[in-house]
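Changelog-adjacent note: as of this version, every example in the card shows the full chain rather than a window. The one below runs 73 residues end to end.
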Amino acid sequence: MFNRKIFPFHIPDEVNAAIDAIEQAEKTHDSLLDCYLEEFRTTVHQYQDVPGGFSEEDGEEVLHYYYGRHYNH
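Full-length structure tokens:
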């Protein structure tokens, strides 16, 4: 089951779109879920420590929540 987390910091629109894609892929059991997760990881890294993005620590928290739940079992 997909649980979206509310973070105490701004999430850029592109990162939210990547999260939406992961959510949809999980709900539909899409075989491309790994691709969506990699796209998400790349997008998060693009928005760390840039204007309109978030800090490295905040980005790592987002990654840990959405990406880590698939690969850190």
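Structural remarks: The helical segments are 13-28, 33-46, 56-66, 68-71.
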